[in-house]
Amino acid sequence: MSFIPPTSNPVLINSPLFSALSELEFNAVAAFLERRCVQKGEAIFNEGDRGEDMFILISGALNAHKRQSDGTQRWMFEITPGLFLGEMSIIASEPRAATISAKEDSELMVLQGIDFYRIIFEYPMIGIKMLNSIGSVQNGWLNQNSKYLRDLILWGETARRRAITDELTGLYNRNFLEESIKDRFKTGAVRARNMSLLMMDLDKVHEINNRYGTAGGDQVIIVVANLLRNMGRPGDIAARLSGDEFAVFLPDTGDRDAITVAEKIREKVASQNVLINRPGSGEKDKLQVRTSIGIASAPKHADNVRDLEFTADMALRRAKEKGRNCVEIYGPA
């Protein structure tokens, strides 16, 4: 790339860092600038480095990346010609806040920290103008970084929500359910207070899938999921395990009270009329839904999460063997 002297370089002259300077003032500062060329992929500096220089990009493009807690590098923004960088390391003696690398072959002008302070002491009016320019740009960067942080927080919340919830229904998933039950066992709360687990299957959903397709089955699953969400008491955890299988964890609830809760759920599900699009027509069919529910309680039936799930599942199997649309509790028949 051909070199243009600093005093006649339009990108440099119009850089936000120097835009407030007169021609004489700019020429005085330009005498301190040194040229540096970098190749694509080359790092200007790395996050955490101690820095003694600031840079003004003349041509090309740079990328800014920031290290995440898991060690990965997240892209933040692109730096285009005329913008400056690295100023906070020489003004506030702070480590580099990000890793800056060349997106393509680029040309920069470098102002060493010692020369920056020489300008401030020898030409105080120039120093004041440059510091004001830096402050104005920093406000812009803060706004941009605030948006980045907001986006990052939202991204983190979304990722966490995806990790603990079922995508179709928005209910909690099996992992979250099991971890919640494990926590209760770990705290020893089960020794002082009961807890119960309801395992649920929707009756004959496979027939709905065969007739109306998986979209029809999904409609039924979503209706039941919303019902469980709305019926839940504070502290209850409703989860979709897979397909048409659900579970409801009831802290501080013994087996007798769990039967009452389960019967209310069964009756509410049975009262639902789900409208499903009839294949090949614009009409809708009204379907009634039924559910079978199995119950197990701790410490009466189990003293760990696996046994609680197993005994509740055994109770569910008995409910289905008895003709479905009923509630069964684990124990002798």
Tally of DSSP β-strands: 15
Low-confidence stretches: none
Please summarize the sheet with the most strands: 5 strands, mixed
- Overall residue-averaged pLDDT value: 85
Alpha-beta classification? alpha+beta
Q: What pattern of helices and strands is seen along the backbone?
A: HHEEEEEEHEEHHHHEHEEHEEEHE
| Number of helical elements | 10
Portion in strands: 15-25%
What is the molecular shape?
A: elongated
Query: Can you list the strand order of the major beta sheet?
Result: 10-11-9-14-15
* Helix content, binned percent: 40-55%
Estimated radius of gyration: 33 Å
Terminal Cα span: 87 Å
Account of the protein in words:
The chain has helices at residues 10-13, 23-30, 87-91, 113-122, 124-164, 174-187, 189-192, 205-231, 255-270, 305-321, and strands at 34-38, 43-45, 53-59, 62-67, 73-79, 84-85, 99-102, 106-112, 195-202, 237-242, 245-251, 273-277, 284-288, 291-298, 327-329. The mean pLDDT is 85. Helix 4 (113-122) crosses helix 5. The protein is α+β, with helices and mostly antiparallel strands and 333 residues long. The strands form four sheets. Strands 10-11-9-14-15 form a five-stranded mixed beta sheet, with helices on both faces.
